[in-house]
Amino acid sequence: MKQRVLVIDDEENLRHMLGAMLRKNGYHADEAADGEQALAMAGEHPYDFIICDIRMPVLDGLGFLRRAQEAGIGGTIIMMSAYGTIDTALQCMKEGAYDYVSKPFKNDEILLVLKKAEERERLKTENCRLRAEVAREYSFGAIVSRNPRMREIFELIRKVCDVKTSVLVLGESGTGKELVARAIHHNGSRRDAPFVAVNCGAIPEHLLESELFGHVRGAFTDAASDRTGLFEEAHGGTLFLDEIGEMPPSLQVKLLRVLQEGEVRRVGAERLSKVDVRVISATSRDLEREVAEGHFREDLFFRLNVVSITLPPLRERLEDVPLLAGHFLNKHGTSLGRPGARVSPEALRLLSAYAWPGNVRELENCIERALILGDGDVVGPGALPDGLRGGGAGWAMVGPDNDNLSIKKAEERLEREFIRRALEKTGGNRTHAARILEISHRALLYKLKEYDME
Questions:
Q1: Cα–Cα dist 76/70, whole Å
Q2: 45 exposure class (CB count in 10 Å sphere: 0-12, 13-18, 19+)
Q3: pLDDT digits (tens, 9 = 90+) for 107-142
Q4: Which value, to the nearest 10 degrees, does the dihedral of the CA atoms of residues 269, 272, 275, 278 take?
Q5: In the beta sheet, which residues pair with residue 238?
Q6: Of 101, 129, 157, which closes a domain?
Q7: What's the CATH number where 35 sits?
Q8: Which Gene Ontology molecular-function terms are recorded (predicted)?
Q9: Is 384 helix (H, G, I), strand (E, B) or coil?
C-alpha cells in the first residue's frame, strides 16, 4: 500500500514539481495551496506524511502546525522554507514538527527525510507491538495454573509489583523463576525501565565484579575502555540475579553494600555512582543451609529475602499439566506449521503420569518436540519421548523407595541419577557435564562433594 503524502505550498510550480517527484518514487501525493485547505483535506483523509511550507497566505505553516496538533491530525509533519533560520527550525520542532528542510533543496534530500521518518514510524509501531507482546506474555492471565499454591503466589506477586522491596524466588530448575521476576517487573511501576538479567553462576568469578559494577579504563589488563555495569544499566528498573547462591563470598559483601547504600563503584574508579535498582534474586539452592554452613552471608540473605516466593515443582501440581500443554501448543503450534493441534487422551494420560524432573521447562520442550516430530492435528503417544511412553519413567526414577515418601530424598535421588548420567555421557568431563545439566561448574563440584560422588 502506497504511503500518502500531502504537499502544502503556495508556490504552484514547486508544489506540482514536488508532487510529481513523490508520485514517481512510489508515493500517493496530494497538494494544497495553503494551511486552511490542507486542514480540510487532512480532516477528510489521513496522511502518513505532510510537507508544509512556512510562509503562506491565509494560514501559514506554523499556524497550520498548531491547529493540526489541536485537531489531533495524525501524520509526520516536515516543514520547509527559503527564509529559515536556526530559531525557526527550533520553533517548528517545539510545535511538533518531525524535521525542517531549507529551500532550495534537492529531491534526494526530501526523499531521505521521508525515508528516515518512515523508519521512525516503523520503529514506533514495532516498539508498541513488542510492548503489547511483553505485556501479554508476562501478564498474570498468561501464567497458567489452577493449583491453589500457584494462585496464592500470583496474589503475592500482585502485592509486591509496585514496591522496591527485594524479592527472593526459590524453586527447582525449570519451575519458572525468571518468568516470575519478569512478571513482577512488567506488571509494576518500573515496567517502562530496563529489566536486566544475569546468571551469577555462568560468569567466571574474576569477571563477575566487572559485569555487575562496571570498570574504568586501565583497571586491569583487558580494560581497554570504560564499561557500564549491570547495576547502572538497570537504573530505574529491575536487576534479576539468577543463581544468587553461586555468587562467590568476595562479591557478596560488595553486593550487600550496594543494596544498603544504593551506590556502586566501578572497578578501578574513585567515585561512587547512585543507582535506583529493584533487585530480584533467585536460586535453586537451600540458602538457609548455605548460611548455616558458612557459604553465604547471613546479612546478605536477610537483605535479599525481604519477600520470598517458593515455586512448587511441576510434580506437585500435576493438575496443571493439561493446561500448560494446551498453552505451549498454542504458543508453538503456529510457528511450527501446526496451528490448532491438540493432545490425544492417551498422550495426555502419559504427560499427567510423568514426574517432570525438568519441571515446566521440560514440559515445554516436550510439547515443542512433539509438534516437530508428529503429524496431523493430534499429538499422539508416538510423538512423545521414550521416557514418557514407557509409562512415566520419570516417576520411576524419583519415586518412593521402600515406602519412603520424602520429597527431599526423591530430589536427591533424581540429582544423583542426572549427575551420574551426565558424567557417563561426557566421559567424566565435569565442565561438559555441568553444561548438560545447565548448572555452573562450581555447583556441580559442590553437589559431587555433597553426594560423596567424588
A1: 15
A2: exposed
A3: 899 999 999 999 888 888 877 777 677 666 666 666
A4: 80
A5: 195, 278
A6: 129
A7: 3.40.50.2300
A8: ATP binding; sequence-specific DNA binding
A9: coil
